[in-house]
Amino acid sequence: MSWIKDLVSPSTRSWEDFYRNRWQYDKTVRSTHGVNCTGGCSWLVFVKDGIIVWETQALDYPGLNPRLPPYEPRGCQRGISFSWYIYSPLRVKYPYARGALLDLWRAARAQHTDPVAAWASVVEDDAARATYQRARGKGGFRRVAWDEALEIVAASTVYTVKKWGPDRVVGFSPIPAMSMLSYAAGSRFLQLLGAVNLSFYDWYADLPNAFPEVWGEQTDVCESADWYNAKYIVVMGANLNMTRTPDVHFVSEARHNGSKLVVLSPDFSQVSKYADWWLPVTAGQDGAFWMAVNHVILREFFVDRQVPYFVDYLKRYSDAPFLVVLDKVGEAHKPGRLLHASALARYKDVENPDWQYLLWDQKSGEARLPNGTIGQRWAKQPGKWNLKLEDALDGAPLEPLLSLIGGKDDVLPVQVADFAGGEAPLRGVPVKYVQTAAGRVAVATIFDLLLAHFGVGRGLAGDYPQSYDDEAPYTPAWQEKLTGIDRQTVACFAREFAGTAEMTEGRAMVIVGAGANHWYHNNLIYRAAITALLLCGTCGRNGGGMNHYVGQEKLVPMAPWSSLAFAMDWGKPPRLQNTPSFHYMNSDQWRYERDFTEYHPVPGNQPHARGHTADLEALAVRLGWLPSYPQFNRNPLDLAREAEAAGAKDDRAVAEWTVGQLKNKSLSFAVEDPDAPENWPRLYFIWRGNALLASAKGHEFMLKHYLGTHTNEVANDVAEGSVHDVVYRPEAPVGKMDLVVDLNFRMDTSALYSDIVLPAATWYEKNDLNSTDLHSYVHPMGQAVPPCWESKTDWEIFKAIAARFSALAASHLPGTMRDLVAVPLQHDTPDELAQLTIKDWAKGETEPIPGKTMPKIVLAERDFANLYNRFVSLGPAVHHEGLTMHGARWSVADIYEGLAASQPQAPWDGRTYPSLSDAVDAANAILRLAPETNGEVAYRAFQAEEVKTGMPLADLAEGYRGSSYTFLDLVAQPRRVLTSPCWSGIVNDGRAYSGYTLNVDRLVPWRTLTGRQHLYLDHPLYIEFGEQLPAYKPKPGPFVMRELDNSKDGGALLVNILTPHGKWHIHSTYMDNLRMLTLSRGIEPCWLNDQDALAIGVTDNDWVEVYNDNGVVVTRAAVSARLPRGIAMYYHAPERTISVPKSPLRGNKRAGSHNSLTRARLNPVLLAGGYGQFTYAFNYWGPTGFNRDTFVYVRKLPQLNW
Amino acid sequence: MDVRAQIAAVFHLDKCIGCHTCSIACKNIWTDRRGTEYMWWNNVETKPGTGYPTLWEGQNKYKGGWEVVDGKLRLRSTGKVRGLTNIFFQPYLPTIDDYYEPWTYRYQDLFDAPAGDDQPTARPISQITGQYIDIEAGPNWDDDLGGSPIYAANDPNLVGLSDEERAQLFQLQGLVFFYLPRICNHCLNPACVAACPSGALYKRAEDGIVLVNQDVCRGWRYCVSGCPYKKVYFNWSTGKSEKCIFCYPRQETGYAPACFHTCVGRIRYLGPVLYDADGITAAASVPDPELVEAQRALILDPFRPDVLEGARRNGIGDQWLAAAQAAPTYKLIKQWRLALPLHAEFRTLPMLWYVPPLLPMMGTVTEHGYRLDADELYAGLAERRVPLRFLANLLAAGNERLVTDSLAKQVAVRFYKRAQTVGDVPANKVEKLLARAGCSPEEAEQIYRLVAMPTFGERHLVPPFQRELAVADLVDPQTQRGEEGLGPRRRPHREF
């Protein structure tokens, strides 16, 4: 019996052409997806008969080296669904405007020949304004012509700039790396205007604050191929299968090469299936687990036995040997500030002596100053900013001591913060006494403080735990009640982890993600794990380190891109605003809470570690710690004009004039009275993102206070009496935004709620650039078909807006004018040396000195009528000033000239510039100017870095000086980036990228106070909050955050709702894609534990109502034993446009989405600034928009109503 | 000995991440049209779970595959003779509800909703009726243990598990899941072909790909019932059955099948094997526990001179023989004995094999919390979070030994590599583990390379189809060169 048909006649088989015809196609085009998935995958888009039909992954990544598995294929279920969107019924094919607005506009336009006057008549009529605001999100869209849409946008922009100031125009677009030019299109327009770009990485709580804290780095991690080099991989708060789909194979392949995988996750997650060990650590308690791991590592690898590799690593690359002054508090001591060089007579003449730090040198038996500190970084005489262990004065080799226990002068009782137990055990720490100008002080090494902090006794006096079974902090027994993990398992884990690192010199890593970083105390969770990684010498080693992948923040050609994207080629400074602060204040979410100490209590009576976050935010703005736009309560164009009229001719004089205005109270910061109409943001541009839903923590508050439409929040407005510096107005404003403009290819929630929706080209219809942390290639986004229907690329849309704006500006805003800009103290500049202590000039504690005790005040030049011309021309500052990154600067004048010669030219106003008219021109300009894509530029950048460090570095680029990529090269094949001093990994000779290998191999300091990796943080605010050393702080509980006050339980289930990244979408993109909806459940369900579901009578696929004071969600339940009791998972981020019924609980109005349950609040310690690595940079530092500590009630939906 | 070539496949379940990229690659290219909305020629299931169509493994309901009755192999549902006498009665067909009713949404409402007092939302509607639909099933409904009390708890492979094992599987501390990607198995003994009253289904001689001739199919749907894997589907629009075609148009032009190409877990292996067609009936007729070995025995050593001679006698060219010798499939299935067929007891001799997953160590809950017995770096066979009986029911026709052999070898290779790359495992321990798994260090090294390091070409050995030879049967290839593609595309005709 055989079913083989070799006798079937050839003609009978000719039917097989049926399927062969389907497979045939006309062309493939290389592209990728710009969706902040961190994938950056290379795809081939198939075009058949001029129609995009499908996509499959490209397979032609150049290999790294033969000892690593290859990268192919990269791309996931979401990416491969993208072609569905192109011709789908969800596609925005034409411009749309809200009917209610359009009627008002057309009526006004009939009355006014001047569009700006027409706009004024609409928005200055409160009743008219409220009419279209109330209509937002409620249907009534009308298709309009491009011309009319652009006129409304341009007229409203001119009006706003004139009336309120350019800093009342704000734009949000996330994660430029995913489509760099599309981002730059909008940001370039906004910055030429003087408007505000809102940050994203911190707002998403994707920024791991621990990275700037420990490393002075936004984020720098290994590419996924380096996972394969790790021999012990710990995954925490990350679900690699779900979120790192194209990369996770490296983990699997590492396992089959003898690596061990341990997964920490409260649920049996998708990646747990892959693990050797799954540890069901209680949600959000990973920090406690790592605290105990550190206890074991310190005990067994540093005290009972010493591992030479670990000790040597700590001495060279960490702050562990540095000296800390112990402050006497009653009978006890508290770890205080680092011991400054200025304290010692020997170093009194060094430059910046308050910014240089000492360690104990075994050889000389004295405190000594090594190279590499921040004071040396910003010294006028460069060349000592390196990690050589040499005395900074005479170059004598240093032998730092980790511990002073051998030659101690004394043992002092030091208080250990125990925020969980509420006690403060006293533990003896060996100290030396040092004679300083201010008298004798007791100092201890950070390493000795660590041992005391973690409770590792060495026969010293004090409350040291006796064994692992002692429940004192931070033993394995101590963590059990927090994590639910048995002490023996923790100890065994620590032994295996450190043991592997010992055997392999640091090839043990942690892969970490949103599941850890989205908690309120994320920085402490991270620091606990980083401490273990540092103790084991893993950071800066291939196969080691803290590898955080949350958001595609790595924009590889950063230096030239920043210049172009923020229009710095035409002048500085840009207005870049940290979004968490912006939304917390402007969308009035601050009004719904009282003192932060209700949920973040700090023992003692510290001056800044109490009160209302809004007051601390205002302090941070006053002191120049954080930016704040809208900046003042007056139009900055008017301010500049007034200052000039008062005789202020330059920046210094204008700054003085401004200080005078602030002092006499005729000027104030807008943040101090955010609800005053003159301080509202007015115009909101949204592109490449979902600012009103997926990126809208406190979505329902934004609907109310920004948009003025319906809301499902029922929270109490309670800030009155709690805020003191910030003005509390009894009436909270409703509908601050005059106009919301959204560029979109799909009708998502943001589009649905916008006033004007402009049809954007998709990722298969435009040319752009893309890069990521997860691999080391630069990618093109390629145009497979021209923009469909009436859509245009972001680049072309903003060009069109700019042209229309400039035409109106010629009469309304003629000539060049000055714009007064307040700029916070900046990271990677000498501003890092601004503030040793916290002194508020507004309270008379110090003088207001711009750039020192308060923000810098700078005049920027605007030329509104030529805004379009500037947009399409690469400006002269690139030629004159060169490019800069991390404080180094190098010349690119010849390359600029080469671009002017080789690229299309933009002549205007009697001069000729390299044209940026086409996005491909802009791409080529970036590629030619970037160290990562042009070896010659890398060489120059390293030369500049050599001057700063005094170390040979340019050899790293020597062999690549001839390598330079063009956009067409990338189209032909993905290209691997070159080693560059703008990043910290060395990738020469096929080496996998791993963060900080440049620091470790080449002794380049980290951009921190000591130049080393910081276990200890001595910012005065951190000391006040008790976070000098990695501490454990409890999670805020369900009832302390005032989110359940008006949501009665009535038998409902109380759960901590987690919103991890899901399987069927990337944020909200793809969530509405039929492919993904079909493979999931046609909706984003709320996952519940089976016993929990039973308790409220819910069975699988039942409709449920999920609610708290912030808002409500109605969806279906996915019931599974995979989750522990007490948590629910509602995967981030469903659209409320898809299959959302109404909520009986909230007046039978349409229910919301995941962000309907959230409210923004800021962790005040993360407002710290003005000091070392705690100075501000966009998306680098500041409070984050965490949301994991959200509690909700869940009940069965009583009645389904559409 | 009748030596034949078959393109075989191996899926390494330990590497599978359940992402479904494969499913969408297939859907985009092959089943994104009227009548095929509900079809997923490639789908991925969560195990334990009931799959798609629901409970497809339960042959008491669907009567797919073969059984041995009185020593003779026969179709469980119907033979050709019985079928023809009952041609209008199909009691064992899955209904649309067993698959799911395909749906979409009223997306246009988001654009067209008139100004109102509340926000519009796009409600789901049936793709079949156009009416509002209450979605209650989908092609991947129990993904990642969604609805575990209903779906996972009814997985047919739980048969034979003790009460204790079952209880453990459905509470968090002990549960486990893994993924099972499925396509047509392109069986050596395909029940679908046997069941077709029209002779529309055939197994291609040159590569073993099983196809439904769209010209000949009359829509009797016996193939749908006959296939125990439910991998033949009825197109309600054309009235013909369709199934996974192993992407022959791609393979014929040198591409791996779409679901293989797009597999980002890098779990899939493809390549031709040689087998003895004379042995099919016998191999499909042995008792259950012997089925896997009998099936392995059918696959021939592509280096044996008599096999090569027999192959050439049957017209298998040198390029294919070289491909069979280099194919990763032969190594994983036969040489290293790592891969196992899905439900061999269906007796269709599937040519898609699976390497069983390792899965994490089982923990216990003590008064102190969750504890793992941590003497070992990697879990031994007894401490794994999956009952071996479950895997054996799924992949070895109940023969647990075959599962443990495969897992033990995978563990031994890992220890071998650990010792080599870290050095914290004693050499004698590695030797003992390898010996127990019947694996030499050389073989361990080769297994490691093919599992951890393979390039695209090493995973997918698409044999060289010499299309000029096939074309020449109908038209001179030189003529074809000038005429290829001219004229309107021809669709199979619907005749009723």
Helix fraction bin of chain A: 25-40%
- Choose one word for the global shape of chain A: globular
Percentage of residues in DSSP E strands of chain B: 5-15%
Q: Whole-number radius of gyration of chain B?
A: 24 Å
Radius of gyration of chain A in whole Å, from Cα? 29 Å
Structural class of chain A, please?
alpha/beta
Helix content of chain B: 25-40%
The unreliable regions of chain B are: none
Distance linking N and C termini of chain A: 58 Å
Number of strands of chain A: 41
Amount of beta strand of chain A: 15-25%
CATH architecture of the largest domain in chain B: 2-Layer Sandwich
Number of continuous helical runs of chain A: 37
Q: What's the average pLDDT of chain B?
A: 94
CATH fold node name of the largest domain in chain B = Alpha-Beta Plaits
Count, helices of chain B: 22
Identify the strand order in the major beta sheet of chain A. 6-5-24-23-22-7-8-21
What's the pLDDT, averaged over the residues of chain A?
Answer: 97
The largest pleated sheet of chain B is described as: 5 strands, mixed
Give a description of the structure.
The complex is a heterodimer of chains A (1202) and B (496). Chain A is an alpha/beta fold and 1202 residues long. Chain A is built from 37 helices and 41 strands. Chain A starts with a strand and ends in a 6-residue tail after the last strand. Chain B folds into two domains: 8-103 and 135-252, Alpha-Beta Plaits (2-Layer Sandwich); 288-459, no CATH class. Helix content of chain B is 33%, strand content 15%. Chain B has helices at residues 21-30, 59-62, 80-85, 96-99, 109-112, 163-169, 191-195, 222-226, 248-252, 258-261, 280-283, 291-298, 305-313, 318-326, 328-335, 388-395, 400-421, 427-437, 441-452, 456-459, 467-472, 477-483; strands spanning 3-12, 43-47, 66-69, 72-75, 103-105, 124-126, 178-182, 201-204, 210-212, 232-235, 240-243, 268-276, 299-300, 340-341, 352-355, 364-366, 369-371. A five-stranded mixed beta sheet of chain B has the order 13-12-1-15-14, with helices on both faces. Chain B has a two-stranded antiparallel sheet with strand order 2-7. In chain B, helix 17 packs across helix 19. The model of chain B has no long low-confidence stretch (mean pLDDT 94). Classes of the chains: A alpha/beta (1202), B alpha+beta (496). The interface between A and B is large, with 136 and 140 residues.
